[in-house]
Specification:
The complex is a heterodimer. Chain A is elongated and about 100 Å long. Chain A is built from six helices and 19 strands. By secondary structure, chain B is α+β, with helices and mostly antiparallel strands. Chain B is elongated, with a radius of gyration of 38 Å. Chain B is built from 22 helices and 19 strands. The longest helix of chain B is centred in the C-terminal third of the chain and has 27 residues. The chains are: A alpha+beta, B alpha+beta.
Chain lengths: 325, 664
């Protein structure tokens, strides 16, 4: 019954929004920052608002029936307060600015921590705001002339550009009689890396031409020092030597040079598309952790050998964006 | 949008609920049986402790037990009483018990709705200005609580845990803003022409003049100093003190103990004529609720206004019981009690009837004295009044009377008050063959100098007798023969004796009564007719539902426009930052010296240039620059900017030499 009524109201809303595209939440994604203006805020009574209206109406009938002036005054006062609540609810949302939206990339299956920054510039405390995305909800308040960063942990399933879809910012404050809401459709692109294989073969190394051999572990003993190169992991920096030389020097591990690894999509012929991506993801992470230089070759792109967070991100992003099998 | 569905209350929310229940029930306390009041108070305190300790729900069987016990108590102590009090007791019990199952935001909101109903109930029973103000204050409190409930999120989170009370100022402002709309709705909202359902169910619980009288009935009334009726003279003069009677029901029938109105004289016959030449008086009578039909009027009302009936013996009755303050514009003839009664044979017989087998000694006495007076009714009446004055005592603590109440009174107790005297006197009249009827009403009253009107209190309730002499009903007040000063009894506020210490208190009481009267006239009397009179100048002749609905829609549209205009005004960019305004001002001041800021310059570059040109003001200028940067970028709030603005305002740029200007 409730599901039906919700379905009906959603259907009606959708129809209305198709008729009035200017008001619609179905409009194209927009870029931040944006201000919640009059034309994008919807207000409807809540269930409690309807209960309140019915109660006041019943009280009004009673007062009219007994022709009791002071009872009438009480009814009209309650009705007037309810009427003011409509505007108060609207004002609680109106003029709020959505400044930015960001999230660090996560691996598929991990929750995406969405951070949305809101900014109040009109000198009113904004209480009891709710940000929804699907069934995920966060409760927050924005102080007058202040900012607030809201976090939403959104579950992810698949790699790739995360379809953020519609966010709903709503409030039934101050009195719970009305709910005002607005839809946000930010165009911010959020990336979800592929889920790495949990357990798999170790990192391949390139021995002979094109052959994959199992790599020996890179020697931990420093063989010598070389100039620090962009991308060298922190633990490779020879701090003492760097201090003496007055420039950054990196330890050169015994196998670091020889253990440059190229990770190739085509070599993993025994697996399906997604499994290959998962394995490549794991290898990329492994190579990065072991401080080795690695290259990635997938259909459509070749990433030359490199190392470091930027390189890692580039590789993972490339893997994330690979078209579906 | 199912917010509030499964949201749970926190401790603060539960305490809010308790506060609402206490606030909404407070006006009913006086109507609750003391035992019930104690039990509910204990339950309430218990719930407070539970909430404070953070104990959640009590078990279902415990709740059930509580409900059973409390409702049992209600039936026990209120079962036999007035249904109104029983209803209030049930309402109060339900509200208090509801606290024990209020754990969710939804329950709390429902409770807020019930609290409103409780306030409505209180106002239906008592429409005083004070209670009305209280109800509006509690309504504001309810909205403050709603605000608190709306702040709760899943898992008892709050968006602003530390703010308490949340939005007090905003809620107060909203309440103030609601007042004009309330007033408009009150003036314009169409009233029902008549009740939709029986309006008599709710009794005011006030005492009033009954349609009958037996010794002892008025006693409660006579010690009640509350106002019963107010009279504002519009034209003519108020009768002097001895003749200031508000004439209520006339009682014709006597059963040995009880005087009753019986079947009122048929209304279709014309009312008893008023003596020609009697002066007229036009006045507004406003009656406190009495739950009765009687409208006691001065002497002889000439006509019945809408909604009232005029009986043949010139008793005014309302069609509906008077359960709320009501006012009537009346015109009376100041007859001094005399009505011409060419009573028909049946009326005369009724006014002479005495029950058989009661009061034999009184009847014998009446016959003997009448014959001794030689049939002269006036002489006989004077003898009785003289007897009353000599041998009888006025005392509210009258001893009880036996079966032959009049015999007991006349020959043994000889102590009583108006009822005893009126009853005994009327019996003595009838026994001597003089038609007589008992009248109850009010006598005396006092003038309130504030507002210049007359106040009759319940303690002014009185009973007297009308006897038919010749063809005229003549008012005879036997009590006056015993205690001419009886009007000072129990009249702590009205008595002339109590000046001095009580002077201030009395003045305050008079002021309070005047405010109550204004409240009655301005608000409580505002009905369909007054609404029409008010709207006529606006071109609305007939206030039909349709036109008023249109007016109300118009008001709502206008208020929506005002509301949105306020929002848009608030939504405009706020006044420019004080620091920026200070900077602009500095720009204008330096601009006059040809040192205005170039678009490409940052604040520091500009000041460097200005300082170079104005070496004497160097220190101040660099000070401004430093403060500007701090105000703009250090995030210290609005204060530094405002201080800077003030400093720049006070700053006088030095008079520059031609040279430095040229150098620029």
């Amino acid at each position: 019954m409730r599901a039906l009524s919700e379905q009906l109201s959603h259907g009606a809303l959708a129809a209305l929004e198709r008729r009035l595209p200017a008001l619609t939440r179905l409009r194209a994604p927009e870029s931040l920052p944006l201000r919640l203006g009059m034309r994008r805020i919807y207000v409807l009574p809540t269930r409690f608002g309807l209960f309140f209206a019915v109660s006041v109406f019943a009280m009004l009938l009673t007062a009219l029936n007994y022709d009791n002036a002071s009872a009438l005054i009480l009814c009209f006062f309650a009705a007037a307060l309810g009427h003011n609540a409509l505007f108060a609810t609207f004002r609680n949302l109106h003029g709020l600015r959505v400044e930015s939206l960001r999230a660090l990339p996560v691996f598929a299956g991990e929750p995406l921590l969405l951070r949305i920054e809101l900014c109040e510039g009109e000198g009113r405390d904004r209480d009891a705001l709710r940000l929804h995305r699907g069934s995920v909800e966060a409760l927050f308040a924005v102080p007058a002339r202040g900012r607030c960063e809201v976090e939403l942990a959104i579950p992810t399933q698949r790699r790739g550009i995360f379809p953020l879809g519609t966010l709903r910012i709503a409030t039934s404050a101050p009195y719970g009689l009305f709910v005002a809401w607005s839809y946000l459709h930010p165009d911010t692109a959020l990336l979800v890396y592929p889920r790495p294989e949990t357990d798999g073969p170790p990192l391949p190394t390139i021995g002979e031409q094109g052959e994959i051999t199992t790599a020996r572990r890179g020697g931990e003993e420093p063989e010598g020092l070389r100039e620090w190169r962009r991308g060298d992991p922190m633990r490779l920096i020879a701090w003492r030597a760097s201090a003496r030389a007055d420039r950054l020097l990196s330890k050169e591990l015994a196998e670091a040079a020889s253990a440059e690894v190229e990770l190739r999509y085509e070599e993993l012929s025994g697996l399906d598309h997604e499994a290959r991506i998962a394995r490549l993801t794991r290898w990329v992470l492994l190579a990065e952790r072991e401080g080795r230089r690695y290259a990635l070759r997938v259909p459509g792109s070749i990433i030359p050998p490199g190392h470091g967070p930027e390189h890692l991100d580039r590789c993972l992003s490339t893997l994330a964006r690979l078209p579906e099998g | 949008m199912s917010a509030g569905q499964r949201l749970l209350l926190d401790r603060r929310g539960e305490l809010w609920c308790a506060l609402l229940v206490a606030g909404a029930l407070a006006p009913h306390f006086a109507r609750l049986h003391p035992a019930l009041l104690v039990v509910l108070g204990t339950l309430f305190a218990g719930k407070l402790v539970l909430s404070w300790r953070g104990v959640g729900a009590i078990a279902a069987w415990q709740r059930l037990l509580l409900v059973g016990a409390v409702f049992g108590l209600v039936v026990l102590v209120h079962g036999g009483g007035a249904p109104r009090d029983g209803g209030i007791a049930l309402l109060a019990s339900m509200l208090v018990l509801k606290l024990y199952e209020t754990h969710r935001v939804r329950d709390a909101r429902a409770l807020a709705g019930f609290a409103l109903f409780s306030l409505l109930g209180a106002l239906l029973l008592d429409s005083s200005l004070l209670l009305n103000a209280y109800a509006l204050a509690i309504t504001t409190l309810i909205f403050l609580a709603l605000r608190d409930f709306a702040d709760l999120g899943p898992g008892r989170q709050r968006s602003r845990p530390r703010a308490f009370p949340l939005g007090l100022r905003a809620t107060l402002v909203s309440s103030l803003a609601a007042l004009p709309l309330t007033a408009l709705l009150f003036v314009l909202f169409p009233r029902l022409p008549g009740p939709l359902w029986g309006a008599g169910i709710i009794e005011s619980g006030r005492t009033g003049l009954g349609g009958d009288m037996s010794p002892g009935d008025l006693r409660e009334l006579l010690i009640d100093d509350r106002t019963a009726a107010r009279v504002e003279i519009r034209a003519g003069a108020m009768p002097d003190e001895g003749n200031r009677y508000l004439r209520g029901p006339v009682l014709w029938d006597f059963d040995g103990r009880r005087w009753s109105r019986g079947a009122p004289p048929p209304r279709m016959r014309s009312p008893e004529p008023v003596p020609p030449g009697a002066p007229r008086i036009l006045y507004d009578l406003s009656l406190e609720p009495s739950d009765r039909h009687w409208v006691p009027a001065l002497d002889a009302p000439l006509a019945a206004p809408d909604g009232l009936l005029l009986d043949r013996d010139r008793v005014l009755r309302s069609r509906e019981p008077i359960t709320r303050v009501q006012s009537f514009r009346l015109e009376s003839a100041r007859t001094g009690g005399g009505l011409i009664g060419p009573a028909s044979a049946s009326e005369r017989a009724r006014a002479l009837a005495l029950p058989e087998g009661f009061d034999p000694r009184s009847r014998a006495l009446a016959r003997r004295w009448m014959s001794e007076a030689g049939g002269d009714a006036r002489g006989y009446i004077e003898r009785i009044l003289r007897w009353f004055g000599e041998d009888f005592r006025y005392d509210l603590a009258a001893p009880p009377l036996g079966r032959d109440s009049v015999d007991d009174f006349l020959f043994s107790t000889r102590t009583g008050y108006c009822e005893h005297f009126a009853s005994a006197f009327a019996v003595l009249m009838r026994a001597a063959g003089i038609p007589a009827r008992v009248v109850t009403g009010f006598h005396g009253g006092y003038r309130n100098p504030i507002g210049d009107y007359w106040i009759f209190r319940y303690s002014d309730a009185h009973a007297w007798v009308e006897v038919l002499l010749g063809d005229t009903w003549v008012r005879i007040d036997p009590t006056a023969a015993v205690a001419p000063e009886r009007r000072t009894l129990g009249t702590e506020l009205g008595g002339p004796a109590l000046e001095g210490v009580f002077g201030l208190r009395r003045s305050l009481a008079m002021l309070g009564d005047w405010i109550a009267l204004r409240w009655h006239r301005l608000v409580l009397d505002f009905d369909h007719l007054r609404q029409q009179r008010l709207l006529r100048p606006l071109g609305i002749e007939e206030t039909t539902w349709r036109e008023l609905a249109f007016l109300i829609a118009l008001i709502l549209v206008l208020s929506a426009i005002v509301g949105f205009a306020l929002i848009l005004r608030g939504g405009r960019q706020p006044r420019t930052d004080a620091a920026l305004r200070a900077w602009a001002l500095l720009g204008r001041k330096l601009g006059r010296l040809g040192l205005d800021r170039r678009a490409c310059e940052g604040p520091t570059d500009w000041i460097a240039r200005a300082a170079a040109a104005l070496p004497s003001a160097q220190a101040e200028l660099w000070g401004f620059a430093e403060r500007f940067v701090a105000a703009r970028y250090a995030g210290l709030g609005a204060r530094p900017g405002e201080e800077l603005l003030e400093a720049v305002r006070r700053w006088q740029p030095p008079r520059t030499s031609r040279l430095s200007r040229a150098a620029n």
